[in-house]
């Protein structure tokens, strides 16, 4: 057996390995479980007892020689391939198509609404999402312990109970009226937060867009004409609207605006509860107390305000039934919205 070991040692030392195929053949012959060295290891039990130690040591040296040569050549081939391909594209890779991203449907709807009101002189205003009680509630005619505060479940800042995540973008209206003199004509898109259970119809985070117009001799007729213009631009020239009396602490009188959605399908009957009408926004004349809170003379100036949920408008436009889809970042859903008409 010692002679066989010497022959294999000479073969290993003489073998030249120049590519991966030759390296794999070398591994199968000398290193794998069924290799010639492995077979010799299994025959040690047949060797005479006084020579068994010498044969075992020789086999270990042979195995280490084969293993060492295999590793050395493998590393050299890997390094050689790395240097060849360094800085060069892999031409074997499949072609990757140039895929453009899409604008999120909420952003598309927001931009559409903004463009509609910009055409009639409204500019865009913004404000903080973390707000104090005065700008989010008190200045808007929500006095402490007023029942109307319960209309909105609020996220308060734990270490400062006077601070909260804004529940509407009306806080931007207050900041504008405090720092600017009439006439004011702005819209305020933004993200708002309410402590509500997440479901197909509600979310703790959503987007609003509100509008404010303050000037001398502003009337409810001005509000109605503005919203009628918006409805026709957003939903089509044949859109019908109606205004229903409602209540909001910061407007008086207050109303909710519906559009006629129709009853053409069973889905229409379901979404409109059999009436054909859909509520899309709240509005009203700015309460004189709100003007006074902001330092504007309510005897000289009047104004109107309105607000709507951007998610709701988007869901109506595209017949989306689950608001959670807007927040899941599923590209299969988002790729459907190339443009908004």
Describe this structure in words.
There is one protein chain. The chain is 40% helix and 21% strand. With 341 residues, the protein is α+β, with helices and mostly antiparallel strands. It folds into two domains: 2-85; 105-334, Bira Bifunctional Protein, Domain 2 (BirA Bifunctional Protein, domain 2), CATH 3.30.930.10. The strands form two sheets. The chain has a seven-stranded mixed sheet with strand order 1-5-6-10-9-8-7, sandwiched between helices. A hairpin with a 2-residue loop joins strand 7 and strand 8 (251-260). Helix 2 (20-30) packs antiparallel against helix 4 and helix 5 (105-118) crosses helix 11. The protein is elongated and about 120 Å long.
Task: Give the SSE layout.
Elements: H1 2-14, H2 20-30, H3 36-42, H4 49-85, H5 105-118, E1 123-124, E2 130-132, H6 133-136, E3 156-157, E4 160-165, H7 170-179, E5 184-193, E6 205-215, H8 220-235, E7 241-248, E8 251-260, H9 266-271, E9 277-286, H10 288-293, E10 302-309, H11 310-318, H12 331-334
Parallel strand pairs: 1-5
Antiparallel strand pairs: 2-4, 3-4, 5-6, 6-10, 7-8, 8-9, 9-10
Q: What attributes characterize this protein structure?
A:
341 residues; alpha+beta; BirA Bifunctional Protein, domain 2; 12 helices; 40% helix; elongated
Predict the CATH topology of the largest domain. BirA Bifunctional Protein, domain 2
The unreliable regions are: none
| Main sheet strand line-up | 1-5-6-10-9-8-7
User: Over all CA atoms, what is the radius of gyration?
Assistant: 38 Å
Q: What composes the largest sheet?
A: 7 strands, mixed
| Beta strand % | 15-25%
Number of domains: 2
């Amino acid at each position: 057996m010692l002679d066989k070991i010497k022959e294999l040692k000479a073969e290993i030392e003489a073998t030249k390995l120049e590519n991966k195929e030759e390296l794999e053949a070398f591994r199968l012959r000398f290193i794998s479980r069924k290799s010639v060295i492995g077979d010799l290891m299994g025959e040690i039990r047949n060797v005479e007892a006084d020579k068994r130690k010498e044969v075992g040591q020789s086999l270990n040296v042979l195995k280490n020689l084969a293993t060492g040569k295999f590793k050395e050549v493998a590393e050299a081939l890997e390094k050689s391939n790395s240097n060849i391909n360094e800085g060069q594209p892999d031409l074997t890779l499949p072609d990757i198509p140039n895929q453009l991203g899409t604008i999120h449907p909420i952003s598309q709807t927001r931009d559409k609404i903004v463009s509609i009101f910009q055409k009639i002189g409204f500019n865009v205003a913004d404000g903080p999402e973390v707000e104090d009680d005065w700008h989010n509630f008190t200045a808007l005619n929500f006095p402490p312990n007023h029942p109307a505060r319960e209309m909105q479940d609020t996220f308060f800042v734990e270490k400062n109970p006077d601070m909260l995540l804004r529940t509407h973008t009306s806080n931007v209206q207050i900041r504008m009226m405090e720092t600017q003199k009439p006439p004011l004509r702005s819209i305020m898109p933004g993200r708002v937060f309410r402590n509500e259970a997440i479901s197909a119809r509600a979310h703790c985070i959503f987007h609003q867009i509100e509008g404010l117009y303050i000037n001398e001799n502003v009337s409810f007729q001005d509000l109605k004409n503005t919203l009628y213009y918006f409805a026709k631009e957003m939903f089509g020239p044949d859109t019908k609207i109606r205004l229903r009396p409602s209540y909001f602490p910061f407007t008086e009188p207050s109303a909710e605006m519906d559009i006629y959605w129709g009853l053409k399908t069973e889905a229409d009957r379901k979404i409109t509860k059999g009436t054909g009408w859909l509520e899309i926004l709240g509005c009203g004349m700015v309460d004189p107390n709100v003007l006074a809170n902001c330092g504007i003379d309510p005897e000289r100036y009047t104004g109107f305000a309105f607000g709507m949920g951007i998610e709701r408008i988007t869901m109506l436009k595209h017949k989306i039934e689950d608001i959670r889809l807007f927040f899941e970042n599923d590209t299969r859903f988002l790729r459907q919205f190339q443009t908004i008409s």
